[in-house]
Amino acid sequence: MLGRPTPADPEIASALFSKHLGDFWATGIPDRKGLGRIQLDCLHSVIAVPAVRANDQCDWYFVRLGAEFYDSFPPTAAFVTPKDWSDATAGGRWQPTFGTLPPWFGWHPAFNYPDGRPRQLLCFTVTAEYYMVDHSPSEETVWTPGRHTVAATINRLVEVLGKPYYNKPAGEQ
Fold it and tell me: Is residue 56 part of a domain?
């Protein structure tokens, strides 16, 4: 069990985060999946992810990944608005809805964290937020530095934003 995330050395975290993102992009997988990447600063990138509905309609989402705790812990992750990269509001266009969810994933558009601040929670073992709240993951699913990288987080997001899980934007009637 990892415990609660503690801040990483920013220089080390940014170097590892950048290397791991670069390594992942070099595989060609992000291009094949239609992903985009926007570097915000040395500790944050926004990943543009196409979400595919059951009828094959595509909606775009933007997920800000952060290396504040990387790579002792996974990256932070939040759906953001493309206007200013701020956290997407619950019930708005830039947060998704899901039909069914895989057993490894939980989605909480507005979750009350232990610090008392409500914010979204992408709840799976390859996000830092998962470790900020009480969970008891099995040993084989716990984030392991050196074995897991930011690529695991992105791949899981791509999976859940596709068929059969993704439904539509929260703000759509």
Answer: yes
Closest CA to 142 of 114, 111, 104: 104
Q: What's the pTM value of the predicted model, to 2 decimals?
A: 0.96
The CATH number for 27's domain is 3.10.110
Structural domain contains residue 5: no
- The number of folded domains in the chain is 1
Give domain status of residue 37, yes or no. Answer: yes
The tens place of each residue's pLDDT in the chain, 173 residues long, gives: 578 999 999 999 999 999 999 999 999 999 999 999 999 999 999 999 999 999 999 999 999 999 999 999 999 999 999 999 999 999 999 999 999 999 999 999 999 999 899 999 999 999 999 999 988 888 888 999 999 999 999 999 999 999 999 999 999 97
Q: What is the 3-state secondary structure (H, E, C) of 135-156?
A: CCCCHHHCCCECCECHHHHHHH
